[in-house]
Amino acid sequence: MAFVKSKLLKDLSKSYPNILQKDLKKTTDIILNEIKRALRRGDSAELRGFGRLSVKTQKSSIRRNPKT
Fold this sequence. Notes:
Helix content is 47%, strand content 9%.
């Protein structure tokens, strides 16, 4: 699922026509920056009705292409 900030802002402005566009942009910037900060700290972020975001470190492995 692709997450595009401009589409999110457009959908929010349709849902909340009484809120100014610049206020919606500022609010979403704050929320997304807080999510980024939590993930950098190693915490997880839970958005009710959407999902839980967390960072997992995957062990490196050697992969080969069987066709070559």
